[in-house]
Amino acid sequence: MKKILMSLVAVLTFAVLTACGSADPAPPAGGAAAPAPAAGGGGAAAAPAAAGDEDLVLRFSIAHSQDPRALPPNEMYFTSAFNARMNAEIDFISIPGEGAGERVNIMLASRDLPDVFMGLINRDHIMRHMYDDLFIPVCYYIDNHMPLLTYVLNQRPQYRAMMIAPDGQIWGFPYIEEMHGLILNQGVLAVNHVWLDNLGLNMPTNLDEFVYVLRAFRDRDPNGNGLQDEIPFTWAGRDGNKGLGAWANGNDIGQFMGLWGQADRGDSLYLDANNQIFFTAAHPAFREMNRFFHELFAEGLIDQEVFNNGGGELSAKLRDGVVGFVINFSLPDRMPAYRFEEFSAVPYMRSELGIWGTRENLSEMHRPTTFVITTAMETPLWAALYADGFYDPQTSVEANWGPLGYVYVFDENGQMVWGELQDGFDTFDDMRARHTLGGRQPLAILDHFYGTVVEYPQNAQLILDHQRDMGFFDYHFESPYIPPLWFTVEEANRLAVLTLQIYGNTVNPMRRGWIMDGGVDDDWYDYLELLERNGLPEFLEIMQTAFDRMRAGL
Known about the structure:
Blueprint: E1 3-10, H1 47-50, E2 57-65, H2 77-85, E3 88-95, H3 100-110, E4 116-118, H4 123-128, H5 139-145, H6 147-155, H7 157-163, E5 173-177, E6 188-192, H8 193-199, H9 207-219, E7 231-234, E8 269-271, E9 277-279, H10 284-298, H11 311-319, E10 323-328, H12 337-340, E11 343-345, E12 365-373, H13 380-389, H14 393-401, E13 408-410, E14 416-418, H15 428-435, E15 443-445, H16 458-470, H17 472-475, H18 489-517, H19 520-533, H20 536-552
Parallel strand pairs: 1-2, 1-4, 2-3, 5-15, 7-10
Antiparallel strand pairs: 4-12, 5-12, 6-10, 6-11, 8-9, 13-14
């Protein structure tokens, strides 16, 4: 019996982008649709069988972050069943999540390598060690031995382009979780419609009406308790800092900027009609928005503690029933169900200059280097075959959200649907953590799986419904955007300095000060000069170079 020793390191961490070459092999059987899920967990690719040797045993040691809710991985329902299908024997090694980054850096520096890193390696690791003979490029394996992943990438060529490193290689296998664009808009503006009804008010459609409703919420006791405890408008401002890759607009007001002609994204980066990147926090609309919000703040129409609010503080205020308007990405997770039912999404407001809202500079390929093969692996093909097994549709669903027979059951149409809570858990997320490694694995969930392979996640459906109600998919979903990019080591080193100077030292503190204390008109031109001195032109040049490099791969 042949035995292949593989060590696979898996940890939940912030991952990166990788892709494969331009070859376009034929998809697996199934025609234009995704490969059909097989009953009992799919497993369309089994490594030993694919290698032509039913006796081949794949042996891995996998280091992974330890969730306190989790069973040992070999006792997890999904992991044990998947490894049995793949004829793989896995020796799991736990790495505490808080120290994972330091542990990986030590392993790379000492060349004490596992055969595979899973969920641990990001773009910066790849770029800094690209020529150190630590990692194996994987284009050949994708194009010649991974039909399931190849089929996914053929359906999503934009992911291929975003996976290619500056040297033209692909260095790992991705984690893809499409949810009809759920994460591509992060801030839903919602209003307490019970308060509107109590005061006989209509949903606001423009800024004047918005201010009118705010004043009514402040002055007319809409919650009916006889106290002046209402907060007309709030958000988790402490969590709304801008920066590259920031999920800021779920806790910020940048989407209001569209009413002055140019919306603001979490990183304040936008594309013009010629695919040139510009900085929206230097746009005149940024000045106008901050002036307007200072006026609201000075009138007591905005939570006076807004920039001290984190998620916990926001949840407490929502739970207490004192909030009129709120911006947040995931309102169902911020308040009890009975409070959530009181809120409705505000359809996009309009002005003569523009419309509320935007899409973010994000991709639903979340972690493109989730599975990275190292040079310690004597037979990289076995690792590639093992990883490809995850890209079966049903297997991807089980790996991501939980196993069939525990989290899921089949309905009468053969679709995986949510079952009943088990083991005394209060949420499906707890069940997921107990029996899967979740997003730390290579997998792909595509939009067309919903309604055929699996039902859409229940809490996420509430968020998606709000996004549809406010108009995101009608107006902004197809807007041009800048996806997460690869940077050379030199570019990354400069960005580390420039992003601190531009976002941390300039944009974030200035806008908070302008909203609370005013002064944007007095400060505006000094602010623009400060951005220049702090390196904005160089920052935009680096971003443009990386973006053009990515577009060349399309």
